[in-house]
Amino acid sequence: MAVEITTNPLKVQHRPNFFSLNLLTTFIGWLVMALLVWWIVIPAIFNGRWQIFQEIAIWEFLAQGLWVTVRVAFFAIIFSLIFGVILALGRLSNKRITSFSATSYIEITRATPSYLIIFYAFIGLPKLGIKLDSFWAAIVGLTIYTSAVLAEIIRAGILSVDKGQFEAAYSLGLAPFSTMSAIVLPQALRRMVPAIVSQLITLIKDTSLAYVVALQELTSQGRAVYQKYGNVLETMFVITILYFIICYILSVISRRLEIKESH
Amino acid sequence: MKKLNKHRSYSAIFLLIAILATAILTACDAGSTATVAATTTTAIKPTTNIATAAAATTTIPTNGGFLETIKQRGKLIVGVKFDQPGFGLNDPISKKLEGFEIGMAHEFAKGLFGDADKVEFIESVSANRIPFLQEDKVDIVIATFTINEQRKQQIDFSGNYYVAQQKLLVKKGSPIKSVADLAGKNVATVQGSTSEQNLAKNAPQAKSLLFSKYSEAFVALENGQADAVTTDDVVLSGLILTSTNPANYQIVSEGFTTEPYGIGIKKGRPELLNYVNSTLSAMKTDGRWKSYYDKYVKPATGISAEPPK
Amino acid sequence: MDYFGKGIIENLNLFWDGFLTTIWVSLISGILSLTIGLIVACLRVTPGGGLKAMAIVYTEFFRNTPFLVQVLALYFGLPKLGIQLQFNMLGLEFNQSFVVGTLALSLYTGAYIAEALRAGLLVVPPGQSEAARSLGLSLIQSLWYVIIPQAIRLVIPPLGNLYIAMIKNSAILSSIALVDLMSRASYVNNRIDRTFEVFTAVIIFYFILTLPLAWGVNYFEKKLNPHRASTLKLRGAR
Questions:
Q1: Which of B305, C10, C62, C165 could potentially form a cystine with C238 if both were Cys, beta carbons 3.0 to 4.6 Å apart?
Q2: Measured between CB atoms, which of B9, B36, B122 is closest to A260?
């Protein structure tokens, strides 16, 4: 049924060539890598202004920012998952009004830069009587954006569940709500785990945009460091590694689940 | 069997998330506002010699209005610059927020609560100072905030506490000697600032590069991406001071605008405005203004000054 | 008379400037990132270690770090290495904000496109490439004539989503002084101070840019065999 996608289609055993493509690509690859190391990595290590990173205080300063980033991301992830499911169900609803309002919310939000939405959450919402500090404004802004994107992913998941399952559940006497929550939704979510996780990684990266609401998260702290010490590349390198560790771990987890799923 | 395993792995992840959730939630509860505030607030030991000099000399009007709200809250929320040497700078190493404007904010808190530490600082970049006031993110803004007619229509200003001039910062040996030389040059400044508007007015031929922070405008100059940085002289001298190689830069002496700095307050709060104005004029006459100025601004600009009337 | 949107109408020429810049950046990045994506996707399916490893490092690095950080590091960092990317061409001046911004956007989007293309290539059943190779086609020929034409069909909807994300990401380039839609919005807002009106206008402008792409994606998704579409596992945009 499902297409086998675990094997590489191009890895075909063929007779050994005198002029091996395999050997060539390996050689070019290592050559380019060596040049990169020679031209960029080695000068960066020896000429870079790394001294300030010997100070514990700098790491504390960055850790403070990282902790804010983690907390903002955590709350935003929880809320976006909840609202994402609600919006997806809303869009699939039979009621015209529900479906129309969910659809227009999703489409407008998805077309807007998340940068703008975070700023709006901070500046615009108070005009509607909702007051938020920069911490919660960042969470709300990220949630508004991510829940719309997740809603689309989840909807695709729901639609990919075989129609026969709905019919079978109904004929067994299950109510529409329990059919959805007990049978369809779990399958839809499971099927979409890689896409959902990839969007959550985007969310974590987008927390860096919260500087527009003056949130002192990791990137802001990094900018404060290079403002003071003028070592843009070195500081950004450190920041990048910190983000990379978080995001990469998540993507590895997601890939594990994906592989398990396809068996 | 396979199915069972899969379920187990999902519930394991679920459990992990649940544990993480409780951990983070409890961490937040424990720190409550402290953890959230710690990121934007930097508590400073009051500069005691100054603070005691004229402790609570101003009388607080009793029919408070919004002033009463602030007092009940127990702290004054002030929007300040975090990247402005001499006026408001957040030092990554000492973790201290320091500067002329920060000192003044402490004085306002002292006058209200008798405690200079009852103040919370929120970073206000140029573009969000007015929205911050209008949306009640902050009570007052002390952030190198130029008084002008356009802004007066949206917010109220106190009397001015400093008069700056907009000037140009260039590399030593630059051909730029005045505003007239800016035609066709890349001039860096900040989005949403008066400097940007003044630049457009005074040197319409210049190519403006708009960044989100002055510090980044300065990096652009350092890199040669910009030929000049323009904004108020105090800001410029602060940028030179914090640069890694101050000897490479100079400020073009001729200024092209005057920028009276005032404290921004939301409209319709006469009691707060009165309080700020009376405290401010007290500070100007009793020497507190001068001691803060000499402590923070003079080392940065090298210019001694008297309080402006 | 004062009505909602008055300030916007009066400053439409300013917005137009930024609108054009956003379009240009998106067009050039669109082409560049597709090129990068194609090359990297091919490198990832080549036999042998070196090039493949590089392709993996590239995609993982750019996909797992924030675009803002990449942009700031490239714009403020490259000159520190003595690299100044700016030039004049056809009487037009391309300053560093434009060149570096476009480059950063292409590198970031390219990493995503490479992954989308690779997913497309892998969906084509392995039997096909084996058949092509046994018919005597070379590796390049079998890729070009057999695998890629099939993969492209599957890859168009995710590609469209990535382009939508790319246009939205271009807003971040306003932080390196690119005079784009976002930057113009802040410029106008600084003069008329109508936060709500200005930002409503920007949302509409971005909507105009992304709408045709969104329609295209919908069209192709409906046209495609739903079963195969679902095996592609709709990657989240961005």
A1: C165
A2: B9
In sequence order, which residues have a C-beta less than 8 Å from that of residue B233 and are 6 or more positions away?
B164, B165, B166, B167, B251, B255, B301
pLDDT tens digits for range B229-271: 999 888 888 888 777 788 889 888 778 888 899 999 998 898 8
Q: What is the pLDDT of residue C88?
A: 72
A206-210, B161-165, C192-196, C203-207: least confident range: C192-196
A85-90 — which CB contacts under 8 Å span 24+ positions? A85/A150, A85/A151, A85/A154, A85/A185, A86/A151, A87/A147, A87/A148, A87/A150, A87/A151, A88/A150, A88/A151, A88/A152, A88/A154, A88/A155, A88/A158, A89/A180, A90/A151
Shortest Cα–Cα distance, B41 to chain C (Å): 24
Chains touching C by CB (3 or more pairs below 8 Å): A, B
Please tell me what DSSP assigns to residue A215: -
Backbone CA torsion sign across B196, B133, A123, B118: positive
Query: Which residues in chain B have Cβ-Cβ distances shorter than 8 Å to C95?
Result: 186, 207, 209
Alpha carbons B133 and B66: distance in angstroms, whole number: 13
Q: Do A74 and B123 touch (CB under 8 A)?
A: no
Supply A148's token pair.
């719309």
Contact at CB, C182 and A160, closer than 8 angstroms: no
Distance in angstroms (rounded) separating the CA atoms of residues A119 and A142: 10
C190 vs B127: CB contact, 8 Å cut-off? yes
Average pLDDT over residues A61-90: 94
The residue of B137, B208, B210 whose CB has the most chain C CBs within 10 angstroms, and thus the best one to mutate to test that interface, is B210
Q: What is the pLDDT of residues C182-235, one digit of tens each?
A: 888 888 877 776 777 887 888 899 999 988 888 888 787 777 655 444 433 333
Pairing between strand C92-94 and C87-89?
A: antiparallel
Q: By CA distance, what is B6's nearest residue in A? A: A260
Tally the C-alpha atoms within 13 A of residue B257's C-alpha that lie toward its C-beta.
Answer: 21
pLDDT at C32: 96
Cβ A123–B135 below 8 Å, yes or no?
yes
Evaluate whether B109 touches B76 at the Cβ level (below 8 Å).
Answer: yes
Asked if A178 and A26 touch (Cβ cutoff 8 Å), the reply is no
The DSSP code sequence of chain B is: -HHHHHHHHHHHHHHHHHHHHHHHHHHHHHHHHHHHHHHH-------HHHHHHTTT-SPPPSS-THHHHHHHHTSEEEEE-SEETTTEEE-TTT--EESHHHHHHHHHHHHHHS-TT-EEEEE--GGGHHHHHHTTS-SEEESS-B--HHHHTTEEE---SEEEEEEEEEETT-S--SGGGGTT-EEEEETTSHHHHHHHHH-TTSEEEEESSHHHHHHHHHTTS-SEEEEEHHHHHHHHHHSS-GGGEEEEEEEEEEEEE--EEESS-HHHHHHHHHHHHHHHHSSHHHHHIIIIIHHHH--------
